[in-house]
Amino acid sequence: MERMKASDFPQELLELFHEYVHGDISRRAFLDGAQKFAVGGLTAAGIFEALKPNYAFAQQIAKDDKRIKAEYVTVPSPQGNGSIKGYLVRPAAAGKHAAVLVIHENRGLNPYVEDVARRLGAANFLALAPDGLTSVGGYPGDDEQGGKLFGQVDRAKMTEDFVAAANWLRTQPDSTGRLGAVGFCFGGGMVNTLAVRLGSDLRAGVPFYGGAPADADVPKIKAAILAHHGELDTRLAAGWPAYDAALTAAKVPHEGYIYPKANHGFHNDTTPRYDEAAAKQAWQRTIAWFNKYLNS
């Protein structure tokens, strides 16, 4: 199947889908709003299918890639939901490795996020991608159902689950103890939350289009922060200058990039919002950031 691009759709339609993905409108409301774009034999339902993730595009690193060893693990989380499951990827090379927590969007641990963990493993990091939906049965294999389940999880307990996962990963025998975190959308906001919560236990954080923490909490951050935003993701991109200023005032090492003409979700290579040039540049910067702050 040919991959469609964001430029194949009106921006108004992409923003309407963004509202649906984030739970601001129902699927029915999206279909009603998409109706005016249904021309030339295209239906609103067809538009919805075209914008949905296609996980056939998600695999950049095969599950049996010889550079990695992957398995599913369960991490105790006594302050959260009791436990959280996750996808652990180890580099095949022996020895200790810097560790990176990978935090999903508001859909749970889907194939795209698992592939991101494998990409980190192939880059010689110990990576764990926890599933915040563990307490409601885990990622159900379908993003729409995942979104519904996400809304049922106690958010405060889910935060504790990610804190527990981060501390577990940092203290694994094959971890150097140097921990980073990368996350997307909800996960980007969670990276910022963990930076506040973990203090010096988190060395580097890379939020992709994540909400910023409260200004009063920024001085608690000890991790070097690298933020990525899409220019067309206007609400979140507009919040970066204030976060940038707060990080500067707190003397936190940081950089931020706003990618021209890129949408929210531009790194997710399973949807038409994917922007290949922006995604590749942001990922190269991300790996370089982790190498700088976790391996040097």
Q: Which structural category do the helix and sheet elements fall into? A: alpha/beta
The total domain count is 2
Cα gyration radius (Å): 19 Å
* Chain-averaged pLDDT: 94
**Strand order in the sheet with the most strands:** 1-2-4-3-5-6-7-8
* Overall 3D form: globular
Low-confidence stretches: none
Largest sheet: 8 strands, mixed
Oligomer: single chain
Gap between N and C termini, in Å? 42 Å
What does this protein look like?
An 8-stranded mixed beta sheet has the order 1-2-4-3-5-6-7-8, with helices on both faces. The mean pLDDT is 94. The radius of gyration is 19 Å and the shape is globular. Helix 1 packs antiparallel against helix 2 (27-34) and helix 2 crosses helix 3. With 296 residues, the chain is α/β, with parallel strands linked by helices. It has 2 domains: 6-52, no CATH class; 60-294, Rossmann fold (3-Layer(aba) Sandwich), CATH 3.40.50. It is built from 9 helices and 8 strands.
Which descriptors would you attach to this protein?
296 residues; alpha/beta; Rossmann fold; 2 domains; 8-stranded mixed sheet; 8 strands; globular
What is the element layout, followed by pairings?
Elements: H1 11-21, H2 27-34, H3 44-51, E1 68-77, E2 82-91, E3 97-103, H4 111-122, E4 126-130, H5 143-150, H6 155-170, E5 175-184, H7 186-198, E6 204-208, E7 224-230, H8 234-249, E8 254-259, H9 276-294
Parallel strand pairs: 3-4, 3-5, 5-6, 6-7, 7-8
Antiparallel strand pairs: 1-2, 2-4
Helix pairs in contact: 1-2, 2-3
